[in-house]
Design brief:
Length: 728
């Protein structure tokens, strides 16, 4: 293990040779075939001014391909209509992928301006195709005769998905309503750009500068990082704290300065809600007004109903049933956690009232008291390099794949790249990692494609180019990047998405995507292994002493696994409910988003003031510019699936059961959206998902349970066994 890590360091250094600082602007690289290793984008040649011409040419080529389909006088068939449509727009899709990924990971003033210019053009282009009457006539002709055609299961699904996508895009509307829908889609595309740019500006604009006498309670590594951050801003002998989670959460967890915790947390909570140029409240009104009107045009009572109709859940009632079942016991558990922390709080602040900015600080104190466990005693075992090697170990143990550092063009000097080799050492794909926060990067962590898995004209698999982007704690001059438990789990999570992309072996582009409430299953599944003892012993190695994490610390981790679960589940479900509520509005009237949120969560559902929802509306990027509108529930729905999949490994007695992993890869991960999510799941598991493992993992279910609830659908009603711990 130590030898591998040493070699890894050498290879990582080598991969930095080709980066954006060496970029030369010349001929548009999107206009010629890429002569790059493994078909990765030529980041060393791509400049902002290349995107708009490339997008315009991509749209023009796409239009010509659609014209060829609609002008074909032959009877519509799978090949000349559905397959031809599926193969169209490849250049545009490729340019859009790179443009969108870079706007999230490496934005700049030039790219922000391009987003504003390109968004309405791209929205209009998409509508021009999806609302093309002649094209839809041919698609419908194939759809209507599909039963009489000699189609295999995937071809039939592609026909049905293609037809449904046109209908959901407005193909059945009359000319007047189509025109209005186009206006709505263009306006929504621009609103999303402005919303995201406002958040990025707010994140970058706030810094809390402290002096050395205001650092009580902060560990040395937190101080070192804050000092180096301040130095980069030209403030020597000061300490800078930002709204990045890697800076915010450690400060809230360890600082004994309650006034400073309040200052920092309120700045985080009030982002884009300060009545200035970056305020997003009017944009939120625009989103809901436009989305509600769009839903009505398409025949749905609300935007949430429109979204969920195309997901596994199918109905908003099914979504609310699951969220409500988790909400009540989670909130009760959180109240119990608060009661324990208030005892500690009273000793420090006898006359004060426990507030949301106190939660992390007293939760950490309580964890020390109950489990003699301090996250700072764990962090030396979770260096980023070691965690990454642990993930590689797990992927190899489960699937036989390996990772080899490679020298390829990089979009930023801090990014690193690996070739992923399958068990037979064939090329599976390229995986980029980009770990640390910077001004041009959006907050959070995500995984996406720069190149999607497809098949070329000769039937050869085109391997994907995948990227994991994070905002983890940076290394300092004294220490490597040492991850928190949450950051460690996040890396396992995003790696699960990466595996899903890398394992794709999907014949048709239109079948690449799975339902939104299924997409988080592969990522959340990987989290289950993160702190398993056998896995920990492979990667949790002290960065100084090279000591493998001792058994007593593993046991402390195991005993504390349900600690603070009430809080974490409550803040998650609160955000999911606020998302569903705002998108379930049936008739739009101008509203105050923050007042709406208070009514939805505090007045109607009893959210306690000591817990904030994971996201307030003005910076809820997932649902306003991140593709999860009326879909933040996806994480909870998918948790039912991921915990039940992991249960299959547990039941086998081998958490690395290669036979089960191979079945999961073949029947689920490799197939993309070749079948609906529940069909894929049942094909793998042989039964409906059981929600008990998910509830049990959050401390919201205790065995034994009634015999009639052994097999349940995620949308099943509340089971009386799922009672809060305080009521058992």
């Amino acid at each position: 293990m130590k030898r591998i890590i040493g070699l890894l360091t050498l290879f990582l250094t080598m991969t930095l040779v080709c980066c954006k600082s060496e970029k030369q602007v010349g001929e548009n690289p999107f206009f010629s075939e890429w002569e790059t290793p493994y078909g990765v984008p030529p980041f060393d040649r791509i400049a902002p001014e290349h995107f708009l011409p490339a997008l315009e040419r991509g749209m023009s080529l796409h239009d010509a391909e659609i014209d060829a389909i609609t002008s074909n006088n032959d009877e519509p068939s799978f090949e000349n209509t559905i397959l031809a449509y599926d193969n169209s727009g490849k250049m545009l899709s490729q340019v859009e992928l790179i443009f969108e990924m870079l706007c999230a990971a490496e934005n700049s003033p030039e790219l922000e301006k391009l987003q504003v210019e390109a968004a309405p053009l791209l929205a209009a282009h998409a509508d021009r195709i999806r609302l093309n009457g002649k094209l839809f006539e041919r698609v419908k002709a194939v759809y209507d005769r599909r039963a009489a055609m000699d189609l295999d299961a995937e071809q039939l699904r592609l026909v049905e998905k293609t037809y449904r996508s046109f209908v959901r895009a407005g193909a059945l509307l009359d000319a007047e309503r189509k025109a209005r829908l186009k206006e709505i889609n263009e306006a929504l595309s621009l609103a999303a750009v402005h919303f995201g740019n406002n958040i990025r500006a707010e994140n970058n604009n706030f810094v809390m500068m402290l002096s050395s006498d205001e650092l009580d309670g902060l560990p040395a590594n937190v101080r070192d990082l804050a000092r180096e951050t301040a130095a980069k801003l030209g403030k020597k002998d000061r300490y800078a704290f930002t709204l990045q989670k890697s800076s915010l959460i450690p400060f809230l967890t360890y600082s004994s300065r309650r006034d400073r915790r309040e200052e920092l947390y309120k700045a985080y909570l009030n982002r884009c809600s300060n009545g200035d140029e970056y305020d997003n409240k009017q944009l939120i009104n625009d989103f809901i007004r436009l989305r509600t009107e769009k839903a009505h045009l398409l025949g749905y009572p609300s935007y949430a109903a429109y979204v969920v109709d195309d997901e596994m859940a199918r109905t908003t009632d099914a979504v609310y049933a699951l969220l409500d079942e988790v909400w009540e016991p989670a909130l009760e558990r959180a109240k119990g956690e608060l009661a324990e922390m208030e005892e500690l709080f009273r000793k420090d602040v006898p006359e004060g009232e426990f507030a949301s900015w106190d939660w992390w600080y007293y939760a950490e104190k309580l964890r020390k008291q109950k489990y003699a466990l301090d996250e700072e005693m764990l962090r030396p075992y979770f260096s980023l390099e070691n965690v990454q090697m642990g993930i590689f170990f797990l992927a190899n143990r489960l699937y036989g794949i390996t990772f080899r550092p490679v020298v390829v063009p990089l979009y930023h000097p801090e990014a690193v790249a690996y070739e992923v080799l399958d068990a037979d050492e064939s090329h599976l794909g390229i995986l980029y990692f980009d770990f640390f926060p910077r001004d041009g990067k959006s907050q959070g962590a995500w995984c996406g494609n720069y190149v999607e898995q497809t098949f070329d004209e000769e039937g050869h698999r085109v391997a994907p180019v995948v990227s994991i982007v994070c905002n983890f704690t940076r290394p300092t001059s004294n220490t490597p990047a040492l991850l928190t438990l949450d950051e460690t789990e996040t890396l396992f999570h995003e790696f699960g998405h990466a595996l899903h992309f890398l394992f794709h072996n999907v014949r048709y582009r239109g079948l690449s995507e799975v339902e939104g409430d299924f997409v988080e299953m592969p990522s959340q599944l990987m989290e289950n292994w993160a702190f398993e003892p056998d896995v920990l012993k492979q990667y949790a190695v002290h960065y100084r002493s090279n000591e493998v994490i001792p058994d007593y610390l593993i046991e402390k981790l195991r005993r504390s696994r349900l600690f603070n679960q009430g809080f974490m589940t409550t803040e998650l479900i609160a955000a999911s409910l606020s998302d569903m509520d705002i998108h379930s509005i049936g008739e739009y009237e101008e509203f105050d988003p923050m007042a709406f949120e208070r009514r939805a969560l505090t007045e109607r559902r009893g959210l306690i003031p000591q817990i904030e929802p994971r996201y307030h509306y003005p910076y809820f990027s997932h649902i306003f510019d991140g593709g999860y509108a009326a879909g933040y529930y996806f994480y909870t729905w998918a948790a039912v699936l991921d915990k039940d999949v992991f249960e299959a490994f547990r039941e086998s007695g081998d958490l690395y059961n290669r036979q089960i992993a191979d079945s999961l890869r073949r029947k689920v991960l490799a197939r993309g959206g070749s079948a609906d999510g529940m069909t894929l799941y049942r094909d793998f598991r042989g039964k409906d998902p059981d929600k008990r493992p998910m509830l049990r993992s959050r401390g919201l279910w205790s065995d034994p349970v009634p015999a009639d609830s052994l097999s349940v659908n995620p949308v099943a009603g509340k089971n009386p066994a799922a009672t809060p711990a305080s009521q058992r």
